[in-house]
Amino acid sequence: MRRALLLSALMLAIPASAQAERTLMDRIAAVVDDELILISEVDERIEAIFPGELSQVSDPVAREAERIELRNGALDQLIAEKLIRQAVVEDQILITAEEVTQQIQQIAKENSMSVDELKGALLGQGTSMPEFRRDMKEQMEYQRFLGMEIYGRVSVGEDQIRSVYEQRKASASTAKLMRLQQLRVPVTAGSGPDQEMPEVPEVPIDVVLAALAGGQDFDEVARIYSNLPGVTESGSAMLPLDPSQLREPFRSAIADLELDQVSEPSKVGDSFWLFKLVGYESEPFPQFDEVKAALANELRQAEVERQLERWVERRRLRTHLEIKL
Questions:
Q1: C-alpha–C-alpha distance, residues 120 and 126, integer Å
Q2: Residues 188 and 271 in one domain
């Protein structure tokens, strides 16, 4: 369900003076300790994640039910972001101006640009360098928070990996498997523990889409921009899979793909995801040792998301939270 927690990158905060002014003309959706979440913020988040979704529902009753579900999901997401931001402050997570500068220099380098050229590209998209630096600092703080609070709880054993492998191998004998390439464009910047989550430049999704539209090879684009573990060494190919194994919105994103077609970007959590259909599986399923590393990385990422959801649930229980929506 869309109400399920959608944990995303920390969004640019509204300055206190601006939020106070908006509150006079706005309704309050929730109170998180002494911080407010406004109805307008909830609606803006819905439009950012599901643009035009409600306009596609013609039946008034169904549209109202959809609106309530979307609002509840967006509000959950905004509450989670408030709680994470509070933890960043409590844990005294600090990113220096020098660290931000180094990250921006790395982004420029990975895109074969000078910092001045990157600044010009950002301005062309309506983002100033001070805004970009502020956003980058918050994203880096978020990644450090994950390292302190979440990554240490993540463990994936060989029995779990083998169980998933056997399930997929069994389904391969009865289902037509798709061969896909995947590309995960991070909204956040930074790296995970033991370099399992590689550091990559944070770039607007439009830059990636433009590269693909311009004819750049999908695998090459993935090696530059994707932060999926192992993509630099082994490329963007996924294991052959039954589409039913994918959760939404991924299942819908690939449902009508034609051969060599790239999906529309799916925004989930802290990333945009793209998929390319490269064929259908007709060869024997790969041996366990051939896919063990890729499966481990996939399960590890899923466990990170689960642990983050649990952290938010625990944090909500000890937070003064009033839902007014």
A1: 10
A2: yes
